[in-house]
Write a structure and sequence with these properties.
5 helices; 28% strand; alpha+beta; globular; five-stranded antiparallel sheet
Length: 288
């Protein structure tokens, strides 16, 4: 038994945050176009986010390396699976497991492979090294599909058998030094209420000139839209919401809204960043 801050703890924290956001929503409303002039506060924050991104490890690895979009991708929990008790969940999250078997000593073979056929060979963890990260029992070679900056990727993994758990625990076997897990840089100062961000980059038009984004609004919204700030390497997006006039009672629920922004030039290889969190946005993937 040993207390650790394991990869599994990051998985549980990220899953809880995502579930909380999803629980307060309803089906998206019709989008509204907006090219309203961004505030000076938005532009100042956008420049800060851009500068932070340009200094990050993720910038260098975004198009050619392995960048995981969320810590939960390191130890993916199978769909429709869970824990028998809160005690078991707490033990998993904190790494309170003991080794009850013999782990394979041979190195794990394999490549990281994307859907378009691209591959990359990275240094991989042995079963014992992966055990040191996760602290669970018994292992078999496997692969898992994870979300990355370049789309879903199939990566080598170790599949551990955990006493008392009814499903195998898979852990990405790529060495920590060979990948980047977002955010990939140090903490960024809070954005504040005057620079709300977006929750998702829903789509990019075929010509790369229009971005459809989702934001979280409220029941009394009269209008909403999105801002953009462009540089040579990034596009930073934020949102605005205007409430209905008058003293109108509103239900305290978050409602997903859709807005569009038109870029000065096609997106190309530029990265889209959320102004509030500073995190990059990949089409169809929500910010955790």
């Amino acid at each position: 038994m040993r207390p650790t801050v394991s990869r599994a703890a990051a998985v549980l924290a990220a899953a809880l945050a995502t579930a909380t956001l999803a629980a307060c929503g309803t089906p998206p409303s019709a989008g509204q176009d907006s090219q309203a002039r961004p505030s000076a506060t938005f532009e100042t924050r956008a420049r800060q986010v851009t500068a932070q991104w340009d200094r990050s490890r993720a910038t260098r690895a975004w198009r050619t390396g392995l960048v995981l979009l969320d810590p939960s991708e390191l130890v993916p929990i199978p769909r429709n699976e869970g824990f028998a008790s809160q005690e078991q969940k707490d033990a998993f999250g904190s790494g309170h497991f003991r080794l009850a078997g013999t782990l394979p000593a041979k190195p794990l073979p394999g490549l990281v492979r994307w859907g378009d056929g691209a591959t990359i060979r990275l240094p991989l963890l042995t079963a014992r090294a992966a055990f040191a990260e996760l602290a669970v029992t018994g292992a078999q070679p496997a692969t898992v599909t994870i979300l990355t900056s370049r789309g879903p990727a199939s990566v080598p993994a170790w599949r551990f058998t955990v006493t008392g758990l009814g499903w195998p625990v898979s852990e990405v076997a790529v060495a920590p030094s060979a990948l980047v897990v977002l955010p990939g840089y140090g903490p960024i100062p809070p954005a504040g209420r005057n620079t709300p961000g977006v929750t998702e980059l829903a789509a990019v038009s075929r010509d790369g000139r229009t971005l459809s984004v989702q934001l979280l609004g409220g029941a009394c919204d009269a209008a909403w839209g999105a801002y953009r700030y462009e540089s040579t390497r990034t596009v930073v997006v934020g949102s605005w919401v205007k409430e209905k006039a008058g003293n109108i009672p509103c239900a305290a629920v978050g409602i997903p809204r859709t807005a569009r922004v038109t870029l000065k030039s096609p997106l190309g290889t530029r990265v889209v960043l959320d102004v509030a969190t500073g995190l990059p946005l990949v089409p169809g993937t929500q910010i955790p």
